[in-house]
Amino acid sequence: MKQTYRAMQISRPGVLELVERPTPAPGIGEVLIEVEACGICGADTGDIEGADPAQQPPRVPGHEVVGRIAALGEHTPGIWKVGQRVGVGRLGGHCNECVQCRQGHFQLCQNQPFVGASRDGGYAEMMLARATGLVSIPDQLDAEEAAPILCAGLATFSALKKSGAQAGDTVVILGIGGLGHMALQYARRMGFRVVAVGRGGDIVQDALELGAHLYIDSNVADAAAELRAMGGAQAIVTTVAHATTVAALMGGLAPGGRLVVLGAGKDPLPVSTGHLVVGERSVQGSITGSPYDNEKTLDFSVLAGVRPRIEIMPLEQAAEAYSRMKSGDVKFRMVLTMKPASR
Hints:
Layout (H helix, E strand, L loop, with lengths): L3 E9 L2 E8 L7 E11 L3 H6 L14 E9 L12 E4 L10 H4 L23 E5 L4 E2 L6 H4 L5 H11 L7 E5 L5 H10 L3 E6 L5 H7 L3 E4 L5 H7 L3 E6 L4 H7 L3 E9 L11 H5 L4 E4 L5 H14 L5 E5 L3 H10 L5 E5 L6
Helix pairs in contact: 4-5, 4-10
C-alpha cells in the first residue's frame, strides 16, 4: 500500500487544493477505501463554499464514492473483505445506539457523519469510512456510473417509493437536472404516467428520452392548470428548492396527492392549509436513505437499465469540474476518476 495519497482539500472557502497526505489506518469499525470514482453533487457547494478551516482541519469534499476496501479496522463486520467493491453516500454510517437506530430508521440516525462535510469524502485516492455506511456495488456497474446513484439515484428512488403513487398514476418530476434526470428514469420504469416540469424548451427532448410522457414548460404554461386538466397528479417530486416555484405547482395535486420535497432550501414553503385539508393532500420531506436502501436502488438500476448521464474528469481537475457543475455546464452529472489524466 502507498504511504501517501492525493486528495483535493478545501484550503479556504470555495477553493480546492491538490495535496499529498499520509495514508491513514482505519480505526475500530472503519475501513480504508481505495477510491476509484467520486461524483460531484450540488450539495458539495455548501460544503466547499461554506467551509471554515479555522473550525476544523481542511476537509476533503465528495459523497458519491465508489472504490475497493484496502484495509479493515478492528471489529469490522465479517461481511466486508479486503478488495471488495463498496460505495459510500452522503450519510456516513449510523451509530446503532440512538432512538432512531433502535427503531430501525438508520437514515435518521442523529449520530452519523455527513460525508464530505463533517468527515473527509471522496475527492481523493483514499478515504476512511464507517463500516455501517458501506454499500455493496454490483459488478454490472462501472465505478463512474455507480457513483451518482449513491446520492442522486438513491434520493429520487426513495422519494418515489414514499410518494404513495401506484402504477398508472400521474407523477410529476419538478426540475430536470442532476436529480431530476434520474427521477424520470425511475418513475417511467416504475410504471407511472410521468410528467416533467421545467423551465425552457431546451430540455424537452432530453426529458422525453429519459422517460417523461409529457413535458410542461412553466415559462410558457400554467403547469398546475395543465395538471388539473389531466385529473391532477397523485405525486409531485420536487428536486428544486425554490419555494415559490414549488408552491405554484401544488395546485396541480389531485385529492389525496402528495408533494415529496427533495430540494432543500432555507426559505419557508408557502402552503395553503385549505388546499391540504380539502382533498387530504400532504407534504413530505425525503432524505437519501440507508445503505440497504442504497443497495436496493443499485439493484433496481441494474435490473431496469437506469444509468446516470455523466461527464468524467480526473481528480487533479476537480476544481474545474466543480466549477462546471456549479455553473450548470454539465449534462447531467460530473464524476471524478482517480485514474491519471494520461490514461
